[in-house]
Design a protein that fits this description.
The protein contains 14 helices and 13 strands. The chain has about 400 residues and is of the alpha/beta class. It has a domain of about 200 residues: Rossmann fold, CATH 3.40.50. Helix 3 packs parallel to helix 4, helix 8 packs across helix 9 and helix 12 packs across helix 13. The radius of gyration is 21 Å and the shape is globular.
Length: about 400
């Protein structure tokens, strides 16, 4: 594995620099920190030919990741998820080239595995032994799994109504779990208050610089899977939006490495109607979001009232000539069920929202029929059975029914 070329950390808002190789959370100004690399040097030592012998995981991009020692890496096989053609769905919604990047096949069933693999690996390298996170569900599962793999102490705060699968996973992995009567923002406040007193390293979304590095590998991966040609549009479910921000960072890095040109996909942030702070800010021409009061949606990963990375997300959407769009819960559930029946791909409600968004944007003319469109499904539908169960009531049938249901024995 080639050595990486980390030079420093840089504040995404004020550009202040911080020394690499030390534990950091936010900049003094409150801005998220980004890892910077000597890409000119890396370009000389890292070529596309290296991928023939690279690991079949996101760690094939290790030279552009912050972990310095290979022995620090904590991996459960995350990354290299399939890019699946959705031909029947494409025909129905008026697209010719529609692809689903299925992140639900990652460890713990979501894209969160990428970010937490990188963050926990850096905790190992920096000697951090206790970690804490607020989560709407999937990030908690991933933290619990990777902390268990690394032998770290994990403290998790989640809203009390998170999907049951997330709660059970975290307990099974041995994490310390606290359910909170509130939203992820309330959980975040508790972690922020307790972490300094308890000696926990806060791995909240964008409050440390390394989860974004793991998630940016989705950008490297989509380019590699498409022969180093980026699509015309990427639809991404944006709660915290770190994956979208990370991919935008990856595209800039790959151009500096000489692997891609200047073309960028339209980055489309998809939210739920019951919690759409990014959509509201985008439509208002604002540089940042305001808190979304009374956030409510079945897509728990989209129930983020005020994402910390709002400025970066809005910047990527606008620089790419993209857009932001909100989908109602009813439409996203219907879209998820229809995709499953058409393609055999059972996606999380967040990914399903992107399917519904693609259909709307094609109908509006924002997306063109000839565009190569990539939808990111960020989690497995199997983790959201409570949400989908509203569409499938379990009616017990009698033995007089012709087909379906449970037959009552005589």
């Amino acid at each position: 594995m080639p050595i990486n070329s980390v030079t420093h950390l840089e504040c995404s808002l004020c550009s202040r620099n911080y020394e690499a190789g030390k534990p950091w959370n936010l900049c003094e100004c409150g801005g998220p920190l980004l890892v910077r690399y000597d890409l000119a040097r890396l370009r000389q030592s890292w070529s596309l030919d290296s991928f023939a012998a690279a690991p079949d995981s996101m760690w094939r991009y290790a030279p552009a990741l912050p972990v310095r020692q290979e022995t620090s890496i904590v991996s459960l096989g995350e990354g290299m998820t399939p890019l699946l053609a959705a031909a029947r769905t494409a025909r129905r919604i008026g697209a010719r080239d529609l692809l689903i990047k299925d992140e639900g096949l990652n460890p713990t069933g979501s894209f969160k595995a990428r970010g937490l693999s990188c963050a926990i690996s850096m905790c190992v390298e920096l000697g951090i032994r206790k970690v804490a996170i607020p989560s709407a569900g999937n990030a908690a599962s991933a933290l619990a799994a990777y902390a268990a793999a690394a032998g770290l102490e994990a403290h998790i705060y989640m809203p009390a109504d998170v999907p049951q699968s997330n709660f059970i996973e975290c307990k099974a992995y041995g994490a310390n779990v606290t359910l909170v009567d509130g939203l992820i923002s309330d959980c975040g406040r508790i972690v922020a208050e307790r972490a300094p007193k308890e000696g926990w390293f806060d791995v909240s979304t964008l409050k440390e610089p390394y989860r974004i590095e793991g998630k940016k590998t989705m950008g490297y991966e989509i380019a590699e899977q498409l022969g180093w040609e980026l699509p015309h549009a990427i639809l991404y479910p944006a709660g915290g939006g770190v994956g979208l921000i990370g991919m935008w960072k990856a595209f800039a890095e790959m151009e500096a490495l000489g692997w891609i040109g200047a073309h960028r996909p339209k980055m489309i942030a998809v939210q739920a109607e019951g919690c759409q702070p990014v959509v509201r800010a985008f439509e208002a021409g604002a540089e940042s979001c305001t808190f979304w009061e009374n956030a409510a949606t079945l897509a728990s990963g989209l129930r983020v009232p005020k994402p910390l990375g709002d400025v970066l997300m809005l910047r990527a959407v606008r620089e790419s000539a993209g857009t932001a769009i909100a989908i109602c819960d009813s439409d996203l559930l219907d879209a998820g069920i229809r995709l499953a029946s058409e393609e055999g791909i059972f996606v999380a409600p967040e990914g399903a929202a992107c399917v519904a968004a693609a259909e709307k944007l094609l109908a509006q003319g924002f997306l063109k029929p000839d565009d190569k469109i990539v939808i990111y499904n960020t989690g497995s539908g199997l983790k959201y059975l409570e949400a989908y169960s509203t569409r499938f009531p379990r009616n017990i049938a009698s033995d007089t029914d012709k087909l379906g249901g449970l037959i009552t024995p005589r």
